[in-house]
Amino acid sequence: MDELPSVLGQLTNLEALYLDGNQLSSLPSSLGNLKKLNQLSLGSTHQEDFTLFAGNQFRTLPPSLLKLTALEYLGLGSNPDLDFRQTLYNLVSLPNLRELDLSKNRMKSLPSDIGALRNLEKLNISYNQISNIPHEIGQLKLLKVLYADGNAIAFIPAEISQLKQLEVLSLGGHPYFGFNQLTTLPLEIGFLENLKELNLMGNLLISIPTQLGQLKNLQTLNLAGFRRGGYKQQNQFTRLPEEIGQLSNLRVLDLSCSFVSPSELKRLEQTLTQTQVLHYDCK
């Protein structure tokens, strides 16, 4: 479908509209009449293995979309032709926006304008080509979930520590879309006091900072590597700091396909008695 009928604007009680996987490049002006609409998805469809997806063809946000002041969720995945800096600037006019999906857009950078969306609670920037997260990410004080898997991220700013409400931080990878390239973590990561899930699978981490032991609410920590056929991507550390033993709420620690020695694994199992330590050899 490449066009929506204008009569759509007569559905004034509509609360959710999913238009994924079409060929839309514009929306009717009547869409602005949907004052109760709180979920709008203009993204992609994909198979279960994530290898195929097709999105719409927007280059700019339609003016009618910016009139949807009740909107809480907006899906803009697989719209690589969008001007994302202008898009983020315009989204400030949606005061109730809580969740934004910008995945699979071939973005090479996340515009600093992201910091203006102060009410965001969930942000998905996975499966792009982003190399650095901007310092302005720290302005999203209400953010609870940040998905940034499958990029080329090599740097996380210290301002990440300002995300005091963050519960999920995912910086892993995917064999089709690629893996992030982190070699170090900011020491300030220890200030994420509400963090429950941290995914660093398939990075290039040389060491794990002792400050990770400050994450008292952490339940899942994924430090695994990936290997399939002739391709591999593994974190480079060989041991974890003793402070990891302070993570009393940790339930799963994944060290599969890592360089951690058997003796170090034994130490971790003896220290983290309430934690399932996973270590599948992928040689």
Please supply descriptive tags for the structure shown above:
283 residues; mainly beta; Leucine-rich repeat, LRR (right-handed beta-alpha superhelix); 2 domains; eleven-stranded parallel beta sheet; two-stranded antiparallel ribbon; 2 helices
What is the topological layout?
Layout lengths: L15 E3 L20 E3 L3 E2 L6 E2 L18 E3 L8 H7 L8 E3 L20 E3 L20 E3 L20 E3 L26 E3 L20 E3 L3 E3 L2 E3 L18 E3 L7 H10 L4 E3 L5
Parallel strand pairs: 1-2, 2-5, 5-6, 6-7, 7-8, 8-9, 9-10, 10-11, 11-14, 14-15
Antiparallel strand pairs: 3-4, 12-13
In summary, what is this structure?
The protein is mainly beta and 283 residues long. 6% of the residues lie in helices and 15% in strands. It has 2 domains: 1-94, Ribonuclease Inhibitor (Leucine-rich repeat, LRR (right-handed beta-alpha superhelix)); 107-283, Ribonuclease Inhibitor (Leucine-rich repeat, LRR (right-handed beta-alpha superhelix)).
How would you describe what is shown here?
35% of the residues are buried. The strands form three sheets. Strands 1-2-5-6-7-8-9-10-11-14-15 form an eleven-stranded parallel beta sheet, covered by helices on one side. The radius of gyration is 21 Å and the shape is elongated. The chain folds into two domains: 1-94, Leucine-rich repeat, LRR (right-handed beta-alpha superhelix), CATH 3.80.10; 107-283, Ribonuclease Inhibitor (Leucine-rich repeat, LRR (right-handed beta-alpha superhelix)). It has helices at 84-90, 262-271; strands at 16-18, 39-41, 45-46, 53-54, 73-75, 99-101, 122-124, 145-147, 168-170, 197-199, 220-222, 226-228, 231-233, 252-254, 276-278. With 283 residues, it is mostly beta strands.
